[in-house]
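Q: We require from you a single protein entry containing the residue sequence and its fold in token form, and nothing else.
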Amino acid sequence: MADEIKYEYKTVRTVRGTDGMVISKMQKDGWELVEQAQGTLRSTLNFRRPRKPIPRLLIGAAAAVLVLIVVIGVANAISAGGEKKDEPDQTAAAAREEHSATPPPAVPESAATDVITPQNNPEFAALLKADYCDDANLDLRPNTRVRSSRSTVRS
């Protein structure tokens, strides 16, 4: 039973007269013509070719890697679950105490004046007040007319 060859099958329908081209193309791809049924306008061609063997060694190696990953994950979860997470680390608590004891760095006063606002910069205030949608921009398109899509042409 292990020496038995397994085949995959394919059925192709062609216009009558093009059978020869289809048969030669399929034979180049490794298919073998099994049956040819002639119809009035169409022909049905049945082909077969030996099925490629399943790479069992590759599947076995992939399964072994998957099992190994699961075992490592479970072992890591068990070892991490044994530790108490509620107790903070002694070194982390000491570092927090040292950090809170040092005063925060002073902010230079010049940094506060570097922020541009309309109150401290008149050029910025003028930019904010300018209206770019006024009539001054209409001269950029002097000969254009707006047409609505609902307008109809009458003759």
